[in-house]
Amino acid sequence: MRKLWGLIAGLAVLLTGSAAWAAESAVVFMYHRFDDSRFPTANTRIDQLDAHIAELQSGGYTVWSLPRIVTALKNRQALPEKTVALSIDDAWMTVYRNAWPRLKAANLPFTLFVVTDETDRGGAEYMSWDQIRELAASGLVTIGSQGAGHPHMPALTQASVADDLARAAQRFQAELGAVPKLFAWPFGEMSNDAEQAVRAAGYDAAFGQHSGPAWFGATPFFLPRFALNETYGEIERFRLAARTIALPVVEVSPPDPTLKVNPPLFGFTMAHEVPGMELLGCYASHEGKVTTETLGPRVEVRMTKPFPTGRGRINCTIPTLDGRWRWFGWQFYVN
């Protein structure tokens, strides 16, 4: 009988643990273009966006602004079940023309990450400063920065990254009267040197383009976002991502996402015990499923092939008994 009650108690922990640990993380989505079929890898169709909005309105989610989520994560405040934020990169005109009317009508907040050089350049492809000011004045939209020139920041010196950020700050101050506090890494690419420049520039947090929920134990300067496009924007995938909870990962190695050894000796430590570790699977973007070895709280991941030049990603997941996924993603840069 004692063994039976022990089994029941263990199952109860597995079944209720997802909701409890979900309070430690939030899902952030990333969009680029809307209804622009010329660029399917960066585009979200209107029928997809409409389905996302309907899901957020009817699926029991709590949609918060990104600054509110960042504050909660940094202060380790419990988040509501299925907390979600929306972000949009690059301020393409299709944001203003196709997404903004729908998101405004649904009263859904989002963060728009602006590249100041592109906005200054103008033309039919990009939103104007007047349009950006209109969104900022609505109370629904937070303006974030992607810097001035949208460079590959790990390929620059720390001084060059600082110059790019300073140039962007001058333009934001001139056009909006304030400098954003949130940053998005161009192309999702980060290095430790570039991170120091972003910190020194006064940002509160920075976001990449690797998948997974943002967890309150993670560094606030390389937070993940689920990217959405025509391929990865169907409602089934959106719903799956929106319901993920974080794998509580610390002590990632190598600590710099810009690789000096390739393939990297990749590993991480679980901050606390997670049920189902025997079901952990890790997948590299260039290789598929890779080898993992668990040594107590430490997980070592080994790849047999080097990442190609540019960006590479790895995702580690564990299924839960209530149909959700614990998820940790990471992005590397190879110069």
From TrEMBL:
Keywords: Signal. It comes from the Bacteria. The keyword DNA-binding does not apply. It is found in: Secreted. It holds the Pfam family Polysacc_deac_1. The keyword Ribosomal protein does not apply. InterPro entries: Glyco_hydro/deAcase_b/a-brl (IPR011330), NODB_dom (IPR002509), Polysacch_Deacetylase (IPR051398). GO terms for molecular function: hydrolase activity, acting on carbon-nitrogen (but not peptide) bonds. Coiled coil: none annotated. Residues 1-22 form the signal peptide. GO terms for biological process: carbohydrate metabolic process. Residues 82-335 form the NodB homology domain. Belongs to the polysaccharide deacetylase family. PANTHER family: POLY-BETA-1,6-N-ACETYL-D-GLUCOSAMINE N-DEACETYLASE (PTHR34216:SF3), PTHR34216. Is involved in generating a small heat-stable compound (Nod), an acylated oligomer of N-acetylglucosamine, that stimulates mitosis in various plant protoplasts. This is Chitooligosaccharide deacetylase.
